[in-house]
Design a protein that fits this description.
Blueprint: H1 2-25, H2 32-39, H3 43-50, H4 53-68, H5 82-93, H6 96-99, H7 104-116, H8 118-144, H9 153-173, H10 180-195
Helix pairs in contact: 1-2, 1-4, 2-3, 4-8, 7-8, 8-9, 9-10
């Protein structure tokens, strides 16, 4: 029992330090020895918990997914007005804070690793699908409330994910010194415009679909 308790305490600490070493050294440059040095512990302790670097990398992916899916980011149940709730959602997912939940360099690095390692691809695919399905559920709610007109909420959610992910590419390659927030705001407006009902599509919310 005590061994399991120690693992629950130490493994997240080791993974957080692995994450920081990766930011500083890159994915290929991070090593068990460097993590141990950063923590001032013996490398054998890391091996004791994870056995090898590959296992530790897979657990780091899960650790970062937990960061990405932190419930406090997407908890809008306390907002009763559907339009305010939609605005809060869009402000959040197109914010710099959301985009940098995970360091963008590591985000791209793990994207590369997902092309080579099926275990990492499966984890990231599951994460993105869960987020897309969450968005689709939110959009269905806003549609039932009569504030958006899009009928295919799954495709709309896919498009929003594409806009969000594209922001980091734009910030890295095309920003030309302009701040991230300029393009995040433009993407947010594009998403909202896509969702808005046209005059012929305005909906009345069915009573049974309101939350």
């Amino acid at each position: 029992m005590r061994k399991n308790q120690n693992a629950k305490l130490r493994k997240p600490e080791i993974l957080e330090n692995y994450y920081q070493v990766m930011i500083e050294e890159g994915i290929e440059g991070a090593s068990i020895g460097k993590i141990a040095g950063r923590m001032n512990i013996h490398p054998s302790l890391i091996i004791h918990y994870f056995k090898n670097k590959e296992n530790m990398t897979l657990e780091l992916v899960d650790f970062l997914i937990d960061k990405y899916e932190a419930p406090e980011f997407l908890d809008f149940g306390h907002i009763d007005d559907p339009r305010e709730r939609l605005e809060a959602l869009m402000e959040t997912i197109f914010s710099l804070a959301w985009s940098r939940t995970v360091d963008p360099g590591l985000h791209f690095g793990f994207y590369y690793l997902s092309m080579r390692k099926p275990e990492i691809r499966q984890r990231f695919e599951k994460m993105i699908r869960r987020f897309r399905d969450y968005l689709a559920g939110e959009l269905a709610y806003y549609r039932s409330a009569g504030i958006i007109g899009v009928q295919d909420v799954k495709t709309a959610a896919d498009t929003i994910v594409v806009l969000m992910e594209g922001l980091e590419f734009h910030a890295h390659f095309l920003a030309e010194g302009r701040p991230f927030e300029v393009f995040a705001e433009a993407a947010r407006k594009v998403a909202l415009e896509m969702l808005q009902p046209r005059d012929s599509e305005r909906l009345e919310a069915p009573q049974g679909e309101r939350r």
